[in-house]
Specification:
The protein is mainly alpha-helical and 126 residues long. It is built from 5 helices and no strands. The protein starts with a helix and ends with a helix.
């Protein structure tokens, strides 16, 4: 299982992108606007849930603790380990927030463009 934890998050999103594209084209063939919006919403929820579980757990950050006095970090190896643990947690959290923002903006843009296209088609028929 350690392999999955060390796998770069980009590979997961390549997989999710492939699943989304396949699902999108399958639903688009049915030409059902409501079903397409439901698919996008469910897929968005699934990806956001994945991102939530990708975040480092808060208890692990709290378990690092703060040094009680200078003796706790007097040794350079202890200080280095302490800083590396915090750095790893901060980098992973930053990466997850970056992807969450990107996915949310992409999702809103795709929903808005779909709604605009749908209403243009409906208005042109009338």
């Amino acid at each position: 299982m350690d392999y999955l934890e060390n796998l770069d998050i980009t590979y997961y999103f390549i997989f999710f992108g492939g699943v989304f594209i396949v699902g999108y084209f399958i639903i688009k063939r049915q030409n059902n606007f409501k079903l397409m919006l439901q698919f996008r919403l469910i897929f968005y929820g699934f990806v956001m849930a994945f991102m939530l579980f990708w975040l480092p757990s808060t208890p692990s950050l709290a378990s690092f603790g703060y040094p009680a006095d200078i003796d706790d970090i007097e040794n350079k190896q202890k200080l280095l380990k302490y800083l590396q643990d915090y750095n790893e947690a901060i980098v992973k959290t930053t990466e997850v927030v970056h992807w969450m923002i990107f996915i949310t903006v992409f999702w809103f843009a795709s929903i808005i463009s779909s709604i605009i296209k749908h209403f243009k088609i409906d208005n042109s028929v009338e």
